[in-house]
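hey so i finally got around to running the thing on that chain from the lab meeting. sorry it took forever, my laptop kept dying and i had to restart like 3 times. anyway pasting the input first so we r on the same page abt which one it is
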Amino acid sequence: MNKWFRKGNARRYNRVDMPIRSFIVPSSPIRDREIYATGANYLPKVVIDKIKSQRLKVFEAVSKVQEQKELVTEITKQIVLALEIFGQCCEKISSGASPKLDLPLWRQVNIISAGFASIKKLQAASPKTHQYLALLEDKFIKHFYYLIFSIENSTADQFQVKGHLPKGFAIDKLLKSFEDPKYEKIPLVQTILNLGGLMNTYLEVYELINEDNYARQFPEEWAIKPANVSASGIAIHLGKRFELYTKLDVLIYIEGLNKILEFEGSVVDIRDNAAQGTERVAINFEFPDGKDQTLLQQEIQKQEVKECMKFALFS
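ok and heres what got predicted. didnt touch it at all, straight out
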């Protein structure tokens, strides 16, 4: 049977799949390097593999472009390089290292922060393509400024953020429309679509870093995610990785009570989910507070009742 066992106690706790708002970070952040870091790995293998796959699709698509092929290929390479620089910065700050101390990298950051200069070459010959790439550039550069702000203003004691990252970009609607099957055979559209997907993967990495250093104080805004929950632990898919047995702070927000349940946990199992590009992390609660544990158990029981109500009853 699927049961969680509480250490040192023979009681059993039922597990149930339910959506939760949670905030999960290591209990011991990195404070002895240039930049404060939570200690989580925001570029685990499952994300790196996803990036490699998306990058391959980008260059497969651009290799089939006919019109303005050399220029479009040049621009594509420039954008991919910019994304890789962005990723290198994320990797460094997640380990507590400052990209500013890597002078070649920081020079690249300063160059890229001015935008994708080569897309202007398309403005006269291919105004529509230029427009599409300019929309992609707009989203990337605005996120890049947030990243640069954090790098320039963070210390070993605090990771500085401006707030939530911006949302609702025009490129998002465009990319959604490009998912229509009627565009499958158009190499230029596929190039832009795959570039957008690659960009979003990198931006999601930084968004996780940003949120882990900002969102703790806004529980009502924590993303709702499906999880397998018991009163003694949870299993949840995350876009970041913790080492096995890492001690974690696990906060669960109960909206109906407007209350945060706080648990100390330990990672007991990690499994890659390549299809989702996430890590399935199983966490056992250690010496949970009795009141919070009781409240969580009550929420689980409510969920079990909801599940039962889905089935028709016959007399």
